[in-house]
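User: Assemble these into one structure.

Assistant: Restating your components, then the assembled model:
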Amino acid sequence: MTIRELEDQQLLRLREVFGERVSTVKADLIAHGRDEGYPDTHAPQAVVYAESEADVVAALRLARELHVPITPYAAGSGLEGNAVPWRGGISLDLTRMNRVLLIESANFSATVEPGVLYPELSRQARPHGLFFAVDPGAEASLGGMAATGASGTAAVKYGTMRDNVLEMRVALLDGRVLRVGSRAPKSSAGYDLKHLFLGSEGTLGVITELTVRLWPLPASAASMQVSFASVDDAVTATVMIIGAGIGPQRLELVDAETIRAVNFYKGRSDAEQPTLWIEVIGRDGADVATQLALVEELCRESGGAVTGRATTEAQRTELWTARHHVYYALRAMYPGHSNRLGDVCVPIAALPGAIAITQQLLREHQLHAPIVGHVGDGNFHLLFHAAPEDAATWERIALVSDTITREALRMGGTCTGEHGVGIRKRKYLRDEHGEALDAMREIKSLFDPYGLLNPGKIFEE
Amino acid sequence: MTIRELEDQQLLRLREVFGERVSTVKADLIAHGRDEGYPDTHAPQAVVYAESEADVVAALRLARELHVPITPYAAGSGLEGNAVPWRGGISLDLTRMNRVLLIESANFSATVEPGVLYPELSRQARPHGLFFAVDPGAEASLGGMAATGASGTAAVKYGTMRDNVLEMRVALLDGRVLRVGSRAPKSSAGYDLKHLFLGSEGTLGVITELTVRLWPLPASAASMQVSFASVDDAVTATVMIIGAGIGPQRLELVDAETIRAVNFYKGRSDAEQPTLWIEVIGRDGADVATQLALVEELCRESGGAVTGRATTEAQRTELWTARHHVYYALRAMYPGHSNRLGDVCVPIAALPGAIAITQQLLREHQLHAPIVGHVGDGNFHLLFHAAPEDAATWERIALVSDTITREALRMGGTCTGEHGVGIRKRKYLRDEHGEALDAMREIKSLFDPYGLLNPGKIFEE
């Protein structure tokens, strides 16, 4: 594939169509050349700030006409280089398309532009007694979350982005805009193109509008922190909690290393053991208290010891702060270090084995990397870190990360639970998907015959 | 497209490969030429009884070699002609692939062959404290349900077939077998081919194995029957029940006409008004009693009157028998009549309007057709019926059905909520999907360049 850089003539043409909405200011180019988690910068030659679907269509048409790569960009909160313009060209900035267009409370849905940040949607839904349930943590955009197939801590209850998008409008390279999915809660009318675009990371088209599900705000919630002698015991408790039909809103596992970091950062003295954070929701205080008692009983059966309990809003915030501050704790413990976030997902029953292997690898390679797991989903992250210039450690991190990913695949898992493929995970897709990867490539060629849509992502070149 | 019939030479070749597993017995051909809901029979020229994935692959390869159509068939419980071999050729019977291969209780999953009937899976899962949650009512096969994107009464709680398949093996026409999806609870690793095959009705490939989700058996359940002055009031109550976060297991609406039929059939005297059947589940009797009290309060706010209540297993069976006997009631009321089942789905808020238009159309055209709705999903069925030879009535049924479907589309709904496209719904896909239909055709061509996989379905020829 030959991708040309933008020539003066091409920039003129961009300016002709987009005027002030094109930027070639160096700071803009650099800002659009990186994300939260990918270490290298690949700057575009131009940034086009789309303000409407028509702008997106025009930009795609121009990319085709000029035969230059085009990569959609919004919050820049991706972790695998998903929005990094690997081959340069145009960065299509969608942050100005940030309007919540419609909240339909009787349909439990909202229609938004792709640049809306998800906390903003929840804020606007609150007066309707509703909220948006997918919470990846970072200030992510809904378009980016849909394009990545993102999820977060509440997926065990509400599902991932894939489960929470009803309908989308997607602009294709050839100028067509498809409406995929349906605002009806279910449909069996033909091929499911919605799910094809969800998680396709801008390699098939650009999402210009989304209708997403909203959920009723829980009337009551309560949380508990439980420490266990081993990860095995914590996962056994998790399986029993789900099996009892409790359906917790969050079920988060961290390892002893993580508790150590949080203790250091927050001046706490929690038991430095594998720990579950569990949040249940219900219709009132009595309901959640009963659920929490049941959770406690099941945890005790696996040898768990309750180390925290929260029934008021203030207590919950305090309890979850520890969980939410894992990243900051890590940064505080290792000032000046850069981070890399591992992300694999395995069948739940395989989780203790996967984490045991992970811990052994970390010991063998003398790495300290806290483990944070969305344990109800079999998904866990490793918070690798090292000084930016410490090449030897980064090499060991790459090796350990690679081994863990291959082990996850061997267990029937996936190389990425919620961060997408981006650049670094491309090499695992053959192992994970076998011949299905060829079918994916064939579909890619159908929608993007010239390889202009976010080239270098998902597929190895 | 030219599709040749099987010639003697071709039959010889089939027998060479499949021996006794090929049938050309007339009764077999006719049995494989129809389903539960499509009025016409289109017999295949041969039935191949696959006993393994290798048989499926061999049959697909032969279909390609001989250039004859091939249509998968299992329970034959489809309603739109989904498995009817419209263009003849080979009917690929999967009923002998009926083994539950694996139940992994700690993963809340089961792996099955496509011919397994879903009640059988629930039966085998019960000793593990689990069940399979998608229940379309008929004795459907799991492969067929996946291929149709089926759902049923419990979708409001557990989702549809699309939400309950984790992984599949799919045999393609070119002999490849793809593994799509993942046994990990979530993944963002590349294009979602699983959802592309789910609901593709055997037009892209043949499902040879499925790993599906199992759910914990509810510890306790209770039901309530509530009658309302209008469908509007019943839907208002539904939105309030969902909005209160109760998350009922079932939320079924029937119209006055249906209650009349059930009263006649079962010798009951329920109020002949729009009626909701609601089932809630919980951790114990007190939990479901509290939920039921809240449901009752919300229904009363919309003018609902409780006409039945069931807390014991025996009472629940009695209460739901009425709902489940709607079809039999109809048959008893109109002996000798044939049926046709309407199936549209709209955004929940549009449901009262859709049902009002439907009732008006039925009155205008002097048709009696009970309305049965999975109201929590915005999905409703019309139970049309007439004497088989009554051409004038069938013509009115076709007209009314067509008008309702187009109205549903106008409201942002879908032409089929859970029965698939099959033959009769093909003509609505352009209206429903616009240019996305062209993209679907392009994908069809990719996987089936000769139009041999279940030709005549989903797309108009």
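The mean pLDDT of chain A is 94.
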